[in-house]
Fold these 2 entries.
Entry 1:
Amino acid sequence: MSYIKGLVCKECGDDYPKEPLHVCEFCFGPLEVSYNYDEISKSLNRESIEKRDHNLWRYAELLPIDEPPLIGKEVGFTPLIKADNIADALGLKELYVKNDSVCFPTLSFKDRVVSVALSKAKEFRFNTVACASTGNLANAVSSLSTSGNLESFIFIPYDLEMPKIVGSTVYGTNLIGINGSYDDVNRLCSEIAGKFGWGFVNINLRPYYAEGSKSLGFEIMEQLGWRVPQHIVVPMASGSLLTKIWKSIKEFEKLGLVDISETKIHGAQATGCSPISTAVKNDWEIFKPQKANTIAKSLAIGTPADGFYAMSVIKESGGWSDDATDEEIVDGIKLLAETEGIFTETAGGVTIAVAKKLIDEGYIPRNESVVVCITGNGLKTQDAVENSVSKPEIIDPNLDEFEELYKTIKSNDQGGIHDAVSKNTHTA
Ligand SMILES: *Cc1c(COP(=O)(O)O)cnc(C)c1O
Ligand SMILES: [Zn+2]
């Protein structure tokens, strides 16, 4: 039983068959998967979902596969954390962290989209898959293509963070660094995709790939007890995740799984690459492409493919958008770590920093419920915070030395251990 009707052009509404296609032949608009919701409503309800395994396939009818999933069977269902410490710090009443920094297997939300794209690639009988990546996608495609027995070619800007490079090559993929920005990589990949018969997860498989992001939204609503929060703050690179979280809410509403809501979707970018947030803040009809210069490399897309649609969702939902400087990103990473014990990458720092601004500016009222989407893991971008966190104190294996150090730590009234330790370093 297939629940997928086919592909449909987002611009002119023309119908296309379920094939590895991504642009409309007539108007060049992007194609999107459409479903038969009447059929879906017959098998999908709260009770049926709750009986299923804890991974993203518990919402399989709303994902674009026709066969049981073949790749990434255990991916998804990450924790939703009621984050009272950081809520206090930000002056909010009800704040949750959706923690995809611990997504299986490569510690970012890209594991979701890639599971769906590669399962679809298997249905389409591709033997080789490929992608253009800002880092996390490279990790997810490398890992999941390896476990799924597919060959892979991965294209990245040459200057990505080392953990994101090693976190791809370790699986034995073909990783190709391009002398240029992500936008250059993406342009080259479009040419390669036209020439080689590969399944490019974010080019000819993009309509299927992008649907995987809806699972983040489905989980938020189920984990809140079949409820939609009043605000969701989402980091934006291409803008796809933000539009799919919106689609996930509209689908759950259509199927009666949640009440009709008035959720506001807010988009977060880095100031050094902020085409979407700049357009929203200036009330422009279209965004202006930018040259990226930010530590949030995973979000550094100067010409975002779904930027226009992300702007529309933000507007339609009544949300807003803002951006964070490199310094604010580091502060955001540290705030989440020091309050909730969650170490996120630079993209998460962007999300926290922008959430803070939206609260201060009044776009998020302090008594309303908020979910922030933490999409990647801090172990992959340690360079960003290396010089902004304390260094360990080194002592000899000797009780007297520790007692001396302990006294210094304790005699420091205001500071925690870190302040005391650094003070001791200076007087030693
Ligand atoms: C790719 C990525 C995003 C944003 O994805 P888009 O759907 O392209 O907007 C957010 N966070 C992290 C960590 C990512 O790797
Ligand atoms: Zn069209």
Entry 2:
Amino acid sequence: MEYLKFCFVFSCWVKFALCVFSTDTPQPPAAIPKEKLLVLTVATEETDGFLRFMKSANYFKYNVKVLGMGEPWKGGDVGRSIGGGQKVRLLKEAMEALADQEDLVVLTVDSYDLIFAGGPEEILRKFQQANHKVLFAADGLIWPDKKLADKYPSVRSGKRYLNSGGIIGYAPFINKVVTQWNLHDNDDDQLFYTKIYVDPLQRHTLNMTLDHKCQIFQNLNGAIDEVLLKFGTNLVRVRNTVYDSLPVVVHGNGNTKMYLNHLANYVPNTWNYEHGCSHCDDDILDLSQLKEYPNVLVGVFIEQPTPFLPEFFHRLLTLDYPKDKLKVFVHNNEVYHEKHIQKFWEENRNVFNTFKVVGPEENLSQGEARNMGMDICRTDVTCDFYFSMDSDVMLTNRQTLKLLVEQNRKIIGPLVTRHGKLWSNFWGGLSLDGYYARSEDYIDIVQRKRVGLWNIPFMAHVYLVKGSTLRNELKERNYFVLGKLDPDMALCRNSREMTSHREKDSPSPESFHMLRPPKGVFMYMTNRHDFGRLISTANYNTSHYNNDLWQIFENPTDWKEKYIHSNYSRIFTENVMEEPCPDVFWFPVFSQKACDEIVEEMEHYGSWSGGKNEDKRISGGYETVPTDDIHMKQIGYEKEWLHFIREFISPVTLKVFSGYFTKGYAVMNFVVKYTPERQAYLRPHHDSSTFTINIALNAKDTDFQGGGCRFHRYNCSVASQRKGWSLMHPGRLTHLHEGLPTTNGTRYIAVSFIDP
Ligand SMILES: *[C@@H]1O[C@H](CO)[C@@H](O)[C@H](O)[C@H]1NC(C)=O
Ligand SMILES: *[C@@H]1O[C@H](CO)[C@@H](O)[C@H](O)[C@H]1NC(C)=O
Ligand SMILES: *[C@@H]1O[C@H](CO)[C@@H](O)[C@H](O)[C@H]1NC(C)=O
Ligand SMILES: *[C@@H]1O[C@H](CO)[C@@H](O)[C@H](O)[C@H]1NC(C)=O
Ligand SMILES: *[C@@H]1O[C@H](CO)[C@@H](O)[C@H](O)[C@H]1NC(C)=O
Ligand SMILES: *[C@@H]1O[C@H](CO)[C@@H](O)[C@H](O)[C@H]1NC(C)=O
């Protein structure tokens, strides 16, 4: 009988073996249906990270059960010290009810710093391929007990050590693991799992292994260089380039949270090339549906002499937002700007709900001032938003504040950049030691080739914070004293992030206050619209009378906006130009402000030549047809003036003297003053120029009477001079001309002899 039985078993085995080996394509085990996958995660609070996790889980239709919500967290500060035992305890409790479901697959993952990049079918397929009952995430770094390294089985390739941020296994087996837990909530979960795993007997009987080659789990700690974004038509994945895998679970463990934030700006479907931003309209606050607009405290920080400050304030005034909903707090650190603020205050103090200024006499540090602004909103329960704006931010988009409020995020800033440069108000990346790092998408975001809402690590210059966020996540005051602004601040607890080196196109923490997201809060930057620009405050010389005139090089866009006639560009688009006499062209070039400020600058300088023939300012020292004038050179404006000619006059010559292009070489550049009391007219003369420009700097009949220019050959006069308009005419031979008498008041013109 024994023999027969053996024989039966033997033949049976042989048959089975034959059967197996004779089949060309062995049938893979039936796929586990996706209903059999249950995701368990522990989260005690609905942080931004948790909500992001849930969003990615819902996108792939995972069945998720959250453990511990609302419980106080007792698991320690995971990531910095050991802890996390509470997670195992909660899991152990949850597994008791699931232990006998043999075909249930449980996936247990962290949630604050983790996202899904693929769906349940894929996870289950890969789990089946791993052919084990329990699979842990793997890590190249060992934590927390380095002494256990030798006890790990060696691996030929792949990551050797266990990471407890991700575990997948059959319910009865997971249960057998976690049921061994008898430690405290603040004991270390990873150490607990590690000890079970490195025990050869347990490893065998519980049929455990690690996901050595990141088929399912990608831990980013120590692995940032391994991963790339892989853009598909609908999905964006993370690709592990070392193992050529597409991990399904991406975990920003250790200090890689900021890097995960970067990946999650794309993964799984946050942004891609096909559809752009998919989350941008989530949670929008529709202002048109509100009875009243939210109250905003606007904090304005003038921490250094800043060009175009009156224009900055003008933009604040013209923001499209009900002004009675705006309270304004200004910190002005510069005596130089007191006159600008005084003027604005006198004209507009009643426009806003309140307008409060803290001046230089208070001697506040930048950090103190910024905290003060935040505190005003924090301690006022009616303050819905705090809008912080540095004086170098030119919001050209009047909708900016509305758009930011509507975006309804805890912290959000609009992208502003230095005109035509890569310099912006945010950092896209952060190196692991907290220094500035350029993210791979930085340039595309700055140039708005990728448009959306970006979760970023650092921001400066302009941002909107919810009042409720200030009163909750940011209630700890002085959180924002950041910046290597003075040696004392090196002691501040966040200083590590701020001691960054300077990179050419990055905002520098040495000179800018930067905002860093508080723990658990995402900070967004939007480039969905063109919001405005950052102006340069470098090389701002405030020793002139109207200093912005000198900004033509440093801030050309703002200079043009302030000083060039608003119809100037229509010369080229609509031929806005007149020819009052043959070959005498007349066109708008200067704004009223430019005219006023140049005249003021000259009168401030005051040393008019008196119209004498002897003139030490010119070569030869003798002027045959002298005017009562001041040369641009005398006020230190020669370089700027010649640049103005190149930028704004040359294009006009090209147009009217068909193809004549001047490089703007001009030796005589001056402002002439005509007044009956001194010199009222100029006798007929030729100019020592190829052509001459003659810009009227004030208005006939308002500022003076008479005046004008008469061209003899054609018996033709231009008598009705228009402020800000320039005459342009050939200097020699054909265009003998004279300055007609000014009969009352004072007339000013700016003249250049070009290409002499
Ligand atoms: C582990 O489990 C798989 C099936 O899930 C089985 O095929 C394999 O033989 C087991 N390994 C060990 C060492 O028990
Ligand atoms: C302003 O503060 C700085 C540093 O706190 C101090 O050195 C300086 O003396 C103060 N100046 C005045 C005028 O109080
Ligand atoms: C600022 O302008 C004044 C007056 O033109 C000049 O004397 C001074 O050198 C300038 N300062 C700098 C730093 O350029
Ligand atoms: C520009 O031209 C338009 C149309 O001719 C005119 O109405 C407007 O006043 C001009 N702007 C200025 C600043 O002169
Ligand atoms: C010049 O024009 C004025 C009118 O515009 C006319 O009275 C005068 O006779 C003209 N002179 C010459 C020399 O043509
Ligand atoms: C000169 O201008 C002043 C003020 O603009 C005016 O009061 C005066 O009447 C003018 N004189 C003549 C002669 O037009």
